[in-house]
Amino acid sequence: MTEVAFHFNAPDKLGYACRLLRKAYLKGARVVVLGSSRDCASLDQALWTMAAGEFVPHCRESDAASLFKASPILIASGHVPPVDFPADVLLNLSDECPVGFERFERLIEVVTFDEADRQRARERWKHYKAAGCEPLRHDLKIAGSAS
């Protein structure tokens, strides 16, 4: 069964995604990121412009096959992860539940303070519960204040 985790109260969804992807990359994980075309383009740009020494290798689904196979992180627009990219983790930045999320060991949802974003996350939470998953809640606001 896929472990579903919601990371609530992210002050900046894309900034948090960059840090999360860097951490996953350093741990050797392979990750698919799903989001809107706009968010995917912004995330791609943000990963290219991280501070020196913090680069996170990644590719877009439209990149050449050689990059696709060699990259630990794939950024894909839409709500269906590509089946030909082997990955352990699915990072969902979209508003919809990803079709086929069950094939991943872990699914991470990033949710901001925005009330509309939180409401869409509640709907996704209900969907995962109905699919038999017991989502985990990580409150970034509490975690950030503890340090």
Description:
This protein has 147 residues and is an alpha/beta fold. The protein has 5 helices and 7 strands; from the N terminus they run E-H-E-H-E-H-E-E-E-H-E-H. A 7-stranded parallel beta sheet has the order 3-4-2-5-6-1-7, sandwiched between helices. Strand 3, helix 3 and strand 4 form a beta-alpha-beta unit. Helix 1 packs across helix 2. The chain starts with a strand and ends with a helix.
Summarize this structure briefly.
This protein is an alpha/beta fold. It contains 5 helices and 7 strands.
Topology record:
Layout (H helix, E strand, L loop, with lengths): L2 E8 L2 H14 L4 E5 L1 H12 L10 E2 L4 H6 L2 E5 L11 E4 L13 E7 L2 H16 L5 E4 H6 L2
Parallel strand pairs: 1-6, 1-7, 2-4, 2-5, 3-4, 5-6
Percent of residues in β-strands = 15-25%
Average of pLDDT: 91
Order of helices and strands: EHEHEHEEEHEH
Number of helices: 5
Tell me the structural class: alpha/beta
Count of strand segments: 7
Query: Largest sheet, order of strands side by side?
Result: 3-4-2-5-6-1-7
Helix content: 25-40%
| Shape call | globular
